Amino acid sequence: MTHAERFTHLAERLAEWQPLWHCLPFQHPRLPWRSRWPQLAEALLALPESEVSRLQEDPFTDSPLAAWLPVGELARLVALPALAGQGEALPEAWGDGIGERKWRQIQAFLSQVEVAKDEALVEWCAGKGHLARALSRCHAIPVTALEWQPALCEAGEALAERQGARVSLHEQDVMAEGAERWLDARTRATALHACGDLHRRLLELAAEAGSAVTLAPCCYQRTADDAYRPLSRLGAELMTAHGLAFNRDDLALAVQETVTAPRGVRRHRQRAGAWRLGFDRLQRQVRGVDAYLPVPSLAYGQMPETFKAFCHWAARQKGIALPAGVDWPGLEAAGWDRQSRVTRLELARHLFRRPLEVWLALDRTAFLEEAGYSVSLGTFCDRKLTPRNLVLRALRDHAQRHSPTASR
Ligand SMILES: C[S@@+](CC[C@H](N)C(=O)[O-])C[C@H]1O[C@@H](n2cnc3c(N)ncnc32)[C@H](O)[C@@H]1O
């Protein structure tokens, strides 16, 4: 299947089921799609806990949703090749100062970066330049790393010096005018888990300059745009033809998979979800308005100790005066009950997580192909290491690479 065929088929399926994945069960005590697919909702609500966890981890295998939804077709459409990596395992000592999981991701990603003779390497949004250091040591070449936080640049320079890696970290806001000066037709730009607008900017500047790109995209919802702006012409045509649209919540769906979250974090999220749903019921009663009210999120460790304290905190955030005599235990139980229902109903939405993520990666692929690149799109590691395991490897076709304006 070509990239364009996959992109087109996924657009068709996403458009067909848009009412189902677009809707957030968390915000709707009465789910709008329930009247359209009542048996699907009943089947989901009847799922035992073990099935819920299994389907959250692996939505495409033995799914009871297949009676209603195109599970098999979606599984085929998201099955991208595992791209073969180059080179040998790196010495473990090179991972000093890097978290274990990050180091394993860097090793897997690094094997995707083919460095041609005379190519200059740039790491985009580098943090402390962990990837840049490993690249420099692996290929015995200097690497330029761009990062806008001075403290990270400083820490990265110190790490590079200590390890004898030829990495120069430059304080650079990649969104600012002039960022294009780091890229030309002999550059290979690399970015591991660069967020929405940051990697969009990279692709646009790289296509202008004719630079090669190795990119693992991430966090598509981190964008200044309220509505998704396709990068490619084909993406724009497909969205128009099929009436597809994505807001920030939709884009967040593409990166919601949390297979790597530790058990404690998952439990914290469950409790936070139940308490928010308990508060949701309370605020609807108190305000006399049957509508969802977004409450800011709280970092791990900042959550109040009790449900009652949480509701008082949330009410203060929203300027709501809570009445006396609230049945706190009853309300908390209602929150947990709704949490259990929401978790089940969300399984329908989550079936479209990976299709959406792959579609967004294909939009980036199509953009580069339209600019005269050859692009490989696949996975660079197992999803247990990181669910954000898609990689685009792109090289401007030779003739155009040395004359970047030829395709314009
Ligand atoms: C998600 S982290 C990825 C870091 C590194 N690539 C990694 O995989 O660990 C994104 C990095 O981009 C940096 N960043 C965010 N906005 C930026 C901007 N406008 N210009 C340059 N760097 C930016 C952040 O400070 C952060 O270090």
What's the quick description here?
The chain is built from 16 helices and seven strands. It is an alpha/beta fold and 408 residues long. Mean pLDDT is 93; it is low at 402-408.
Q: How is the topology of this model organized?
A:
Elements: H1 3-16, H2 18-22, H3 38-45, H4 49-57, H5 71-78, H6 100-110, E1 120-123, H7 130-139, E2 143-147, H8 150-163, E3 167-171, E4 187-194, H9 196-209, E5 212-217, H10 233-242, H11 248-253, H12 263-287, H13 307-318, H14 328-350, H15 353-370, E6 373-379, E7 390-396, H16 398-401
Helix pairs in contact: 1-10, 1-15, 6-7, 12-13, 12-14
The structure holds S-adenosylmethionine (SAM).
pLDDT averaged residue by residue = 93
Which of globular, elongated, flat, extended, rod-shaped describes the shape? globular
CA distance, first residue to last residue: 27 Å
- Give the structural class: alpha/beta
Question: How many strands in all?
Answer: 7
Question: How many helices in DSSP terms?
Answer: 16
CATH superfamily of the largest domain: Vaccinia Virus protein VP39
CATH topology of the largest domain: Rossmann fold
How many separate domains make up the residues? 2
> Which strands sit side by side, in order, in the main sheet?
3-2-1-4-5-7-6
Low-confidence spans: 402-408
Hetero compounds = S-adenosylmethionine
The CATH class of the largest domain turns out to be Alpha Beta
**Helix proportion of residues, in percent?**
40-55%
- Strand content bin: 5-15%
SSE run: HHHHHHEHEHEEHEHHHHHHEEH
Oligomer: single chain
The radius of gyration is 23 Å
Largest sheet properties = 7 strands, mixed
